[in-house]
Design a protein that fits this description.
32% helix, elongated, 5-stranded mixed sheet
């Protein structure tokens, strides 16, 4: 054996063979690492996307489903369906709901290719996501109208601007950033340009203002997509976000914002004249801060927290 090693040491061809073999093994190992690591990274990213989408979809269902007895069941089912549609295995997906928070966990076994030469056939990848939903606490672009806080059901037709006083001197209008019928009309057409928040006080605008109320027709004319209250595009001008309050109004007064309601305006439902505005109560997602302890009153936001 000693003489063989000495001979091998003197024979450069034998040494080259050993070095080449070691190098090839190293290169093969690196190829296995790069190939399978890339495959694992891709599989995990796909799983992350799946659980993110699932958590957001489930959170939106928590906001939109009006039935408290089925809300969590439906949200959980939708989350599972969305996760599966995005590649998460059904058997490896779990959904947990706690109040306004929904968590989705998923696991997938990824078969490996190059690493099988080293006895490693597969690896598991996991992903977790959590989303919350709550009522939006501030909004930019409200209509210069208000409504008394009350239980509202999806598709309910409500009067937003009255043709005759709802209370002495009040027809449901607001004076936003100044009084006057022209200011009211501009805000009705374009929406109020400043952000308002829960707890903020706003001045009312007494008087019927029949002429300026016609400004709503100018706003509605911008909708060219044939929107309806159960099928409208985001940003449709027929949607009005209206602050809610619990005040008993008398003439020139103030409201304190307790929430935001969303309505799809229907001028065909107006029977008392053009000085009246009615709309169907709908729910709509919006940007802004949320309070997860508040049940969404039309205006909600679902967002990822994990």
């Amino acid at each position: 054996m000693e003489s063989f090693l000495k001979k091998l040491h003197r024979d450069e061809r034998g040494l080259s063979f050993i070095l080449a073999s070691v190098g090839m093994m190293a290169l093969f190992g690196m190829a296995a690492l790069v190939t399978d690591f890339g495959q694992l990274a891709l599989a995990r990213q796909q799983l992350v996307n799946a659980v993110d989408s699932a958590a957001l979809a489930g959170a939106r269902e928590l906001a939109l489903d009006p039935n408290p007895s089925t809300r969590e069941l439906m949200a959980s089912q939708i989350a599972e369906d969305v996760a599966g549609a995005n590649g998460a295995p059904v058997a490896g997906t779990t959904v947990f709901i706690d109040g306004g928070t929904i968590s989705v966990d998923a696991q997938r076994t990824v078969p490996l290719i190059m690493s099988r030469a080293f006895g490693v056939n597969s690896r598991d990848v996991r992903a977790h996501a959590a989303a919350v939903v709550g009522g939006v606490t501030s909004y930019q672009g409200i209509a210069p109208l208000c409504i008394k806080e009350q239980p509202l059901t999806y598709g309910q037709l409500c009067t937003l601007k009255y043709g005759s006083p709802d209370s002495p001197g009040n027809f449901g209008a607001l004076a936003l950033a100044g009084r006057g019928s022209m200011n009211y009309k501009d805000n009705l057409i374009n929406g109020f340009g400043e952000t308002v928040s829960l707890g903020q006080t706003l001045a009312t605008e007494p008087g019927n203002m029949s002429g300026p109320t016609d400004g709503i027709d100018q706003r509605l004319s911008r909708c060219t997509d044939g929107c309806t209250y159960d099928n409208f595009r985001p940003g449709c001008p027929r949607i009005l976000v209206v602050p809610m309050h619990n005040n008993n109004l008398q003439g020139r007064d103030e409201i304190t914002i307790t929430g935001f309601a969303v309505f799809f305006v229907d001028r065909d439902a107006t029977i008392s004249g053009s000085d009246e505005i009615k709309g169907y109560f709908v729910r709509m997602a919006a940007e802004g801060n949320i309070d997860i302890s508040r049940s969404p009153t039309g205006l909600y936001r679902a967002k990822l927290i994990q």
